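Running this now, will post back.
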Amino acid sequence: KILKKKEKEEEKRKQEQKEEERDKRILALIQQQVMNQATITRDIITQVIAAIPTPQAPVVNVTAAAPPQSTHSMRLPQRQIKHFKGDILEWTQFWESFNAAIHSSTLTNVQKFDYLKEYLKGEANLIVNNLELTDANYQVATDELTRRYDKKQVMIDTHFNKLHTLQPVKDGNDVPALRSFQLNLQSHMNALETLGVPTTSFGGLLGTQLIKLIPSSLKLEWAKSESKKSTDIEGVTKFIGDQIDATERFNRIRGVEKEKPSPAPKQPKPFSPALATASQLAVGAKSNPALQVKPTLKSKSVKFGPSWMECERPCIFCGQIHWPTRCPKDLVEKKSIIN
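Update: finished.
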């Protein structure tokens, strides 16, 4: 028994020794892995710090051309580009602004395409909405937009349609409406000139139409001079501008706003007959219906009251045909009769 007990203790000691050695090996392996991970993390941090560009010192009064900056550090100029929603008359203005600020810059095509999608709204956005944001698709998007909206003849037809649908101005003193009419007219004419359509090619018909759209007071001023011709579009537009300027100066000198509407005249109150007195009610007196005066009576000299209407009942005090208030008896006699 003693030998068996010693053998068991020896086996137990050996087992504990093996477990202790195993734990030491595991601990050493974990420490080695932690050290390796720390080394890798330190190397990554060192590489990231080395990749960060050092800030350049500001340069004042530079005469030589500055070297081109990298794409990632470039900043776009602070300017507003109006969103394009598909109006063909706004395409040229939008593309020129976008071209100057973004399309001609050193940005990558992916960055340019991202900006392009941001500035397109409505119908125009549907053209590029389903195109993936890739380098090649930027050229596809610009080509498709140019094919759809950069149409010279469509722009010309649209400007002519705008000129033919100008709304007439009826009030010669409405300076804002007249000024809006003049500016819209001039903007479409200038746009046609830039598209290669001279004013002389359509001025005759347009001038005749413009005379019909201005207020009657301006038509009268136009008709006073026989030398003026409606086929002279430059003369018509100059006349409209001069008249608007004159009206604007006149309103400024006068310094008054539009006249306020005058209040409505007061309607005369309908006539209501006077109420009967207590003495009339006591004797049951009432006025003759045939002699009732209607509210529409135009005479203003008639005075309404019991003295004006005829009495048909005898007086309660004396028995004569007259109103009790006209009875000649004194007050004492009237009181004695009533009592």
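The chain has twelve helices and no strands. More later if anyone needs it.
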